[in-house]
Amino acid sequence: MTLVLTTYDWVPDMPRGFVRDIRVRWLLEELGRPYRVETVPLREKSPDHIAQQPFAQVPFIRDGDLTLFESGAILLHLAEGTDLMPADRRPQVQQWLIAALNSVEPFLMAWVIPKLFGKDEAGAARREPLLRKRLDQLQAALGGRDWLTGDSFTVADLLMADILRIPAQNGLLDELHPLAAYVERATARPAFGKALADQMAHWRAADERQAVSQGK
Ligand SMILES: N[C@@H](CCC(=O)N[C@@H](CS)C(=O)NCC(=O)O)C(=O)O
């Protein structure tokens, strides 16, 4: 049965390219697993949506009989038994994937919400030092290696690099050359390019549907 990935029916320009279904699309492309996309409305949260994602967010997936929410849990489930979760490094891959979600992304979101959604420069400036500290610490931990857990790219790198795209695009990695190179290395992978193109095409199709329904 084809895996189903659910995302929003439409979002404004700002999060396009960053809606978290991108990380699931990216992994599915890396794995060569076919999937189809379904949508839920961004604004009206239905009981059916909440039954599948209790926080009324996206993404969530249906993989056979299994419905899963939380992008990290989805990535762990899909990567299991593949080259992106090498058996001899499984605990380290899980550790870094959880570090991405729990020790990096919260500091990024604390900065992103005032900076990019709230246009609150003062609020963002207050949070920036803590985010910068995490980014410095992450670069030190990477320690000149190409990838977080060894010689090969894993699902932990996929998630960490996805999270680091926003700091990279907002100048926060300008002085952190090894970390910036890490993000570039990860996002240069064809699977990321395909995932990003597909997500952007999804929003364009939504715009076109909206224009037709409004008779433009
Ligand atoms: N921890 C969740 C976060 C999901 C999340 O923040 N989703 C965003 C889109 S990227 C969302 O649905 N935002 C709208 C909302 O919270 O109503 C995950 O990683 O899946």
Mean pLDDT: 97
Q: Give the CA-CA distance, first to last residue.
A: 38 Å
Main beta sheet strand tally, sense and closure: 4 strands, mixed
Order of strands across the biggest sheet? 2-1-3-4
- CA-based shape: globular
CATH structural fold name of the largest domain: Glutathione S-transferase Yfyf (Class Pi), Chain A, domain 2
Q: Strand content of the residues, in percent?
A: 5-15%
- Which bin fits the share of residues in helices? 55-70%
The H-and-E topology, N to C, reads as: EHEHEEHHHHHH
Structural class: alpha+beta
Helix tally? Answer: 8
Q: How many distinct folded domains?
A: 2
The parts where pLDDT drops under 50 for at least 5 residues are none
Q: Any idea of the CATH class of the largest domain?
A: Mainly Alpha
Entry keywords:
216 residues, alpha+beta, Glutaredoxin, Glutathione S-transferase Yfyf (Class Pi), Chain A, domain 2, 2 domains, 4-stranded mixed sheet, binds glutathione
Structure, explained:
The chain is built from eight helices and four strands, in the order E-H-E-H-E-E-H-H-H-H-H-H. The chain is of the alpha+beta class and 216 residues long. The protein folds into two domains: 80 residues, Glutaredoxin; 104 residues, Up-down Bundle (Glutathione S-transferase Yfyf (Class Pi), Chain A, domain 2). A four-stranded mixed beta sheet has the order 2-1-3-4, covered by helices on one side. Helix 1 packs across helix 8 and helix 4 runs parallel beside helix 6. Bound molecules: glutathione. Glutathione (GSH) binds next to helix 3.
List the helices and strands and how they pair.
Elements (H helix, E strand, L loop, with lengths): L2 E6 L12 H11 L3 E6 L6 H6 L7 E4 L2 E4 L1 H9 L10 H28 L3 H22 L12 H15 L7 H11 L2 H24 L3
Parallel strand pairs: 1-2
Antiparallel strand pairs: 1-3, 3-4
Helix pairs in contact: 1-3, 1-6, 1-8, 4-5, 4-6, 6-7
Bound molecules: glutathione (GSH).
